[in-house]
Design a protein that fits this description.
This protein is an alpha+beta fold. The protein has helices at 8-17, 27-35, 82-98, 129-137, 166-171, 175-187, 199-213, 220-230, 243-270, 275-304, 339-354, 375-382, 402-417; strands at 2-5, 39-47, 50-61, 67-71, 101-106, 111-114, 141-142, 156-161, 189-193, 234-241, 309-319, 322-330, 358-364, 387-391, 395-398.
Length: 418
């Protein structure tokens, strides 16, 4: 076996065929990161010209101009092959040290354990302790089995296996999820695939959503660069509201409820002491008022947006055998239309068309307490009746003595923030 620096196309070919393939270990992402100052390294292990393992690493400077290396969702290696993993690790340390680096951070695209939709441990599901033990034995330091979003990448995700035809799979979505999908369509919501001209709209929706929910958001410039380098991996789904369908749907609801209200009034006239009829009439009156107000909104919407309006956005990425939802957002004033459900349905349907094995709805936390401030994210994804998955997590490999200094300085900085 020999350690080699790989050419870009060599790495691309290997990474696209490897079981742990991820969009984070692609030439496309590397080009994006180069735009922001990272130096990219493609390295691997060969045996008689055959690549056995590889990784894309990002080199960045930190305090005192020291260099840190990061292999996002790497390494691409068989972690159960201890001989190969040991050789790769030893050579990586030497390579990084020669480049002036002091640390390598990895967060492999390796699932530690698959859980039930509720987050419970499945009785017959084995965890991948071998990978963790092998890494620890080789000197990697584990960030731990963190529950929250306190690592470079999410350790917990929600994944939908595409192991049945779509209609069968859809029948297993929760009742409320199926209802919301159909409600979107009735209200006049539609989904189209966006292009470069929609990046401004997408950025605005993501930015407003992130401010509302206290999430991190990217700039328009970032998404423009991302689209330039990664457009073949990306799909932008735009949810928009059709004014005519919205108006006609609301008018139909009002007409139907008005008829119900009139019938209840007639029944109550002949049976004025019925508490049951009186309660039904009160409920119907409230609905009539609600639909009248909504119809006025629909009329104004037709005037303001005769061609419709974009109200939600979902950014999806092709990532190995998974079709992944990276980010989504909805305009505050249109939250009641629940466009995320319809965008996710389009994402799932596209995953079936393209032959993916999974839909990965990506980041959640491992805290399934309804009091958790991120619980709503999990609750929404849970409605699609998939599985909670745990990745093995983040590891650091010390390469030089400066590693200890760096960790001490981080602890001091953290202490001052408290």
């Amino acid at each position: 076996m020999e350690f080699v620096v790989l050419g870009e196309e060599e790495f691309r070919t290997f990474s696209k065929s490897y079981p742990q393939e991820s969009f984070m270990q692609t030439v496309e992402l590397a080009h994006l990161k180069e735009e922001y100052g990272s130096k990219v390294h493609y390295v691997g292990i060969k045996n008689k010209k055959k690549i056995l393992a590889a990784t894309m690493m990002l080199e960045d400077k930190t305090i005192f101009s020291k260099k840190m290396f990061y292999a996002p969702r790497g390494l691409l290696v068989d972690y159960h092959d201890k001989e190969l993993l040991s050789f790769f690790t030893k050579e990586l340390k030497q390579y990084i040290k020669k480049c002036g680096g002091f640390i390598l951070t990895i967060d492999p695209n390796v699932v530690y354990r698959v859980r039930s939709s509720d987050g419970d441990i499945l009785p017959d599901e084995e965890k991948d302790q071998i990978t963790i033990d092998n890494l620890l034995e080789l000197g990697y330091r584990h960030h731990g089995f963190n529950l929250y979003l306190d690592a470079l990448q999410a350790r917990w995700a929600y994944r939908l296996p595409l192991d049945e035809d779509y209609e069968t799979k859809k029948s297993k979505f929760s009742k409320s999820t199926r209802k919301n999908i159909e409600s979107c369509k009735k209200k006049g919501l539609m989904v189209r695939e966006g292009n470069v001209d929609d990046l401004s709209t997408m950025t605005t929706i993501f930015d407003l959503t992130s401010k509302r929910k206290d999430f991190f958001s990217r700039s328009l410039s970032y998404y423009q660069k991302m689209y330039h380098h990664m457009k073949d991996l990306m799909t932008i789904y735009i949810a928009y509201l059709d004014p005519e369908v919205y108006y006609q749907h609301t008018k139909t609801l009002l007409d139907e409820e008005t008829k119900v209200h009139q019938e209840l009034e007639a029944k109550l006239a002949s049976n004025p002491t019925s508490d049951k009829l009186l309660r039904k009439l009160e409920t119907s009156e409230a609905l009539v008022r609600k639909y009248k107000t909504e119809l006025e909104h629909a009329k104004q919407f037709k005037i303001d947006y005769p061609k419709g309006k974009d109200i939600g956005c979902l950014l999806s990425l092709r990532s190995g055998n998974e079709y992944l939802t990276l980010s989504s957002g909805v305009l505050e004033e249109y939250k009641s239309f629940t466009p995320k459900y319809l965008m996710y349905e389009h994402h799932i349907q596209e995953a079936y068309k393209e032959g993916f094995k999974y839909c990965n709805f990506y980041g959640i936390t491992g805290d399934f307490n309804p009091q958790n401030k991120y619980y709503g994210i999990y609750e929404f994804k849970k409605g699609f009746n998939g599985n909670v998955i745990e990745y093995i997590g983040q590891f650091e490999l010390p390469v030089s003595g400066f590693y200890s200094v760096y960790k001490a300085l981080k602890r001091i900085k953290s202490w001052f923030r408290k």
